[in-house]
Please model this.
Amino acid sequence: MTQSVAKSTGGAGSTPAPPVASRKSVMGTRLWVAVLFLLPALVLLGALVVYPIGYSVWRSLFDADGSGFVGLDNYVDIFSDDSTLTAVRNTAIWVAVAPAIVTVLGLIFAVLTERVRWGTAFKLIVFMPMAISMLAAGIIFRLVYEQDPNQGVANAVVTSVHDTFVDQAVYPKARPNAMVSDLKPSDGGSFTSTGTVRAGSPALLPLVGIAPNRLPGTPQDAKAASPASNEVTGTVWLDFKLGGGGEKGAVDAGEKALKGVKVEAVKDGKVVASTTSGADGTFSLPKSADGAQLRLPGANFAAPYNGIDWLGPTLVTPAIMGSYIWMWAGFAMVLIAAGLAGVDRNLLEAARVDGANEWQVFRKITVPLLAPVLVVVLVTLMINVMKVFDLVYIIAPQPSQDDAAVLALQLYLVSFGGGGNEGLGSALGVVLLLLVLPVMWVNIRRLRKERQR
Model:
């Protein structure tokens, strides 16, 4: 009885109950300490993310100057305005095309560079554009896409290839001397004589419109053609010389020959003979040309080929995408190469032993094993291209800017670029956020699944 009382009342030999411990988090940290450390981040998150989103949603319900409540009218305007619909369409094209191309290029680069000695150097070169800001890249590619082949690298290459396979105009912008020549404009930019030519009577075809010091190569002095009884002869020359002087319509000393000009003899609308002028400007046609009209085809005088209008309304969006791909292919390559380094080589070797060729190994083994990394790269780039602004704003010239506009650029132009409608701009910002959210949700869901593995 005494012992039981002693145990119940806590006798001299009993152990005292431990004090109640203060509440801690799972990680062993007091809750108020965790909140204290998270507070600066929460304040910044609220000030820089939550508040702007909330204010944009609220501002999108008011008119341009914010004085009148308009409800959802700004959202209605987005899908009824042609320029905004163009921006929506271009954004969809960016999301569908650019991330896929960058991911595929990154995959190809990552796989191929594993098989060459200089793979590291190649990766460094491909990744280098990532060190360049969007502003600098935009300026670079604005110069690359210049229309003038003497300034734009793209058109310099295109014109070089074109001129290799297609004959260039010999004397662009040259024209007959209307005061003394009977050559008159005809179809296709050509010039045809009003009279006919006769064998034994040399034809004179004087041209002007080009400076003697602008003639290609080292032209010779023009020479009057000698008469011949069995053929039609003549001279094509520049009827002008520096310093002036001489008789118009006559071959004077010091006047330059026009070499390589094509001359056609035409009877009843059909070409019966043709030739080109020699180094001294003279030419000869067979007896069949007797009684024919002479024609200088328009190909002699056509303007030079200046390449492709990269920044015109048709190609401006693909051209800007090209600059984006150039910048971000290195990013995709590095991430995919890191994932490729973790692939079990035994699986690849086993597939080869079983008789699979390299394409089958790549398609059925490598790509499925890299699928998680490819999804990460693709989703990251999709979010990135939805916000693209710098490249479009800098590269697209003013006449083509509306054709190349994306949602981020349209938001800026509507709000601050002369539109002055912050209500519509806020609505565009909300729409852009709503477009990004599904992609972010897919990415978050994927991350959660990976954690559960």
User: Anything to note?
Assistant: The CA atoms of residues 10 and 323 lie 83 Å apart.
